[in-house]
Amino acid sequence: MQQSGSSPAYDVVLIGGGIMSATLGTMLTELEPDWSVALYENLHQAGQESSDPWNNAGTGHAALCELNYSPSGPGGVVDITKATNINEQYHMSLQYWSHLVENGTLTDPRSFINALPHMSFVWGDDHAKYLQARYETMVPNPLFAEMEHTEDPDKIAEWAPLLAEGRAPGQRVAASRFEAGTDVDFGALTRQLINKMDHDGVELHYGHKVTSLSRDTDGRWEIAVHDRLNGRKFSVKARFVFIGAGGGALDLLQSSGIPEAKGYGGFPISGQFLRATNQQVIDRHHAKVYGQAAVGAPPMSVPHLDTRFVDGRRSLMFGPYAGFSTNFLKTGSIFDLPKSVRPHNIGTMLNVAKDNFDLVGYLVSEVAKTHGKKVDTLRGFYPAAVEDEWELITAGQRVQVMKKDPKKGGVLQFGTELVSGADGSIAALLGASPGASTAAPIMVQLLQRSFPDRFTGWESKLTEMIPTLGQRLNENPKLLAEVTQATTKTLQLA
To answer: Over the chain, what is the mean pLDDT?
Structure first.
């Protein structure tokens, strides 16, 4: 750290203490150990908002079971382009975490990642036909070659007993399974990475809220900070700023004034889950089981019966039940949405609203559901579910990206969006799923975009971190097998 007048000055400032800032900060301390780096987090611990497994992160999205990543098109043709890309990216994250285990940054893989089968499950003729077509499209791809598929109720009961228990005989059901899936506790992973950053000299500032960004006359960014512990307000400077503040990123990106931020808006969707309280039920289910989203539901609301390992403890949850709140963060303000409206994005937002009345209707119906109705939805997956054995928990906020579109005027985008300034001095990550699971490749993309003059010199080190960087595993089955064997061994997933 240097002093610039009365303001501390850094090479890099990271805003937000989630998995994105943790990943970027960990990479930078290895690539440029002499750089001065500071992290500012509004809460009093890292990984407490979207990266927390009880909020949004936790699946280890690899497109193995999430049906919204492999949509059915005209004539029933299934498009697996997005699924292939996400799976490729997840393999990069696995390689990066393996590297961090090998160099001692992460000491116990099972504290943040566990082997867990991923399943897709549907019922009814149309859904079963789709799942069969999806399987037939995916299994020739080397990335998905180990996928299994069945419509045999006995086999499904073997894979996931709760799906079969109490189900009406004769109902057509179908399931696909990828046994070598994973479950990730991104909160635990985030905190381990940030602890290592602290050890490597990164300045950590918890309970510090960044309120705005402005460009100084010398080209550096001036970052306004509010110390919530003592009420002090001050500013710091940085050559590069990363806004990894989850739902809080849009407001800060807008405050920066960069042209690239114009036209972006945010649509917040809240969520709830049912969590099992009967340990015998929890112990009988060992899989992540994803189904089809309801008509009008956003893709992030795809229902799933989900085994999770949080702080080393096994749990079972079902949901999400989408809701609406104008907060952009779980700990945010009800004024977040109205404050985000700007002259440059109001047209985008109005066009999105016009084209998404079905989404609004869906959210209203979800909010109106009683606990009993929520359990009725669960019974589509687990027919024998007992209402009193499930408690309702509130998850985090997801802020879906609204962006300009030349044809529609504005579109609601379900995914992640990396927005950066033309000179590479600032970048922000907007959006949600698959998010945390693809943090490593997203941060490599950020490094390439924001530091083009240095990236070539970093490539050899980045290839040590992610050996298949720049290669497509689905085009090289031999390399895929080697990489999978190596990460499975290092991360103790066998």
So the answer is: 90
